[in-house]
Amino acid sequence: MTPAARLSAAIELIDTIERDRVPAAKALKEWGTAHRFAGSGDRAAIAGLVWDVLRRFSSSAYLMDSDTARARLIGMLRLERNMDTATMAAFFDGSRFAPEPLTEAEQAALSHRSLKHAPAAIAGDYPEWLDPHLAKVFGAERIAEAIAMASRAPLDLRVNTLKSNRDKALKALAHLHAKPTPWSPNGLRIELSADARNPGIQAEEDFIKGGIEVQDEGSQLAALFTAARPGEQVIDLCAGAGGKTLALAALMQGKGRLIATDRDKRQLVPIHERLSRAGVHNADVRTPKGEADPLADIRATADLVVIDAPCTGTGTWRRNPDAKWRMRPGALEIRLKDQVEVLERAVPLVKAGGRITYITCSVLSEENNEQVRAFVAKHPEFSVLPPEQTASVLWDKADDFGQAALQSPEGWLMTPRRTGTDGFFVSVLRKVS
Questions:
Q1: What is the rounded distance in angstroms from the CA atom of residue 44 to the CA atom of residue 162?
Q2: Is the distance from CB of 285 to CB of 260 less than 8 angstroms?
């Protein structure tokens, strides 16, 4: 396919996604099935265009003063890809499979309109109803924070120290131009261009042998902040597919007792194969059965309970940009209730002197600081460990991280703009002896 034909395909897909209200991933998959002639490079390029339009969904329409799929694509090419009008006109020439030529109105918009006076929600490309929530956290910086949350994320990997080390993994992945991550001592990063296909990490020998796992650096840091130690009894209460479980196992060096469970047993399906590949032998996966409590035998014995809490996922927008446009206010209310419930489940599991690490992939105060304050008010036997103390796990990078991340009495908030990670909140609470 020619570059111009890819633009036409992207316009068609954007129109389908908006008109039929279908998730972008589903629309892209169905398009690829129906257009077998498109090669893998074509599909990757078209997907990149579609995802970038979703990243700039509001601002592109504002710039062009039009909310059609075509207008959004043109606006995105200017805002996200910095394409000038002359270059754009060469693609939009009306030839076979190419979009129709730029109209006078479109050329005028590209020449004279900007985002200078756009409302914050439009300039930052997020739903308007979220503006007061983001303003509460970031104030006047919310546009800059939101723009960073709309950028394309790199591919981050975590080296499994049970089987490998970072120097070895860097050599093995040199052909993918992997680099060390800025903060995590075990992280690798592969930067991806807008049109790049995701590298087939699952086919790499290091992945097959369990030496590396896909995990955002923010998630890696959240696991480090738990300070899980060899010999401890650790419970991963919202284990899901096991990303943080694997990181906890590596921190524990295979020593101690690691229990992984999740209220939704469907989420646990991949964890068994992942634990086996990673060489984890001290993990006990507790799959719920009916109404029975899979942790009924554990009372006040856990050194650490890790809660990777269900949340709105606002911190992961750069990886799933269409999710923010499908998010409704009611979703926040549901998640707040879920978080209270899982925190309450953790309380009787923790022994005196033990701790709870509360983690969300959200940047909203209601799910983070306010949730922690409410919990401590209800359970005065718990206190928040000072954030500067928890950052000591980063050793020589602790001071720099303290300057980069948002620090509060309740914990740490990482964001793409500040730390180059997904948005993660981490709070460590200790039970008074």
A1: 34
A2: yes
C-alpha 400, offset from chain centre: 22
- State the Cα–Cα distance between residues 75 and 143, nearest whole angstrom: 18
Q: Alpha-carbon distance 168 to 211, whole Å?
A: 9
Structure tokens at 81: 């890809």
**Contact criterion met (CB below 8 Å) for 65 and 113:** yes
Give yes or no for a contact between 209 and 163, defined as CB atoms under 8 angstroms apart.
Answer: yes
- Distance in angstroms (rounded) separating the CA atoms of residues 52 and 194: 8
Integer angstrom CA distances of residue 246 from 160, 192, 267: 8, 25, 15
Rg (CA), the chain: 23
Tell me the pLDDT tens digit for each residue of 209-234: 999 999 999 999 999 999 999 999 99
Can you read off the two tokens belonging to residue 285?
A: 């996966």
pTM score over 0.90: yes
Rounded Cα distance between 70 and 67, Å, is 8
Q: Are 265 and 288 in contact (CB under 8 A)?
A: yes
pLDDT in tens, 273-313: 999 999 999 999 999 998 899 999 999 999 999 999 999 99
Rounded Cα distance between 300 and 381, Å, is 13
Tokens 């991340």 sit on residue: 405
Q: Report which secondary-structure segment, H or E, holds 133.
A: helix 131-138
Q: Are strands 257-261 and 283-286 parallel, antiparallel or unpaired?
A: parallel
Instruction: Tell me the C-alpha distance between 166 and 145, whole Å.
Output: 30
Exposure string of 158-197, with b = 16+ CB inside 10 Å and e = fewer, is: bbbbbbbebeebeebbeebebebbebbbbbbbbebeebee
Q: Tell me the CA distances in angstroms from 295 to 232, 236, 299, 348, one per residue in order.
A: 17, 11, 8, 10
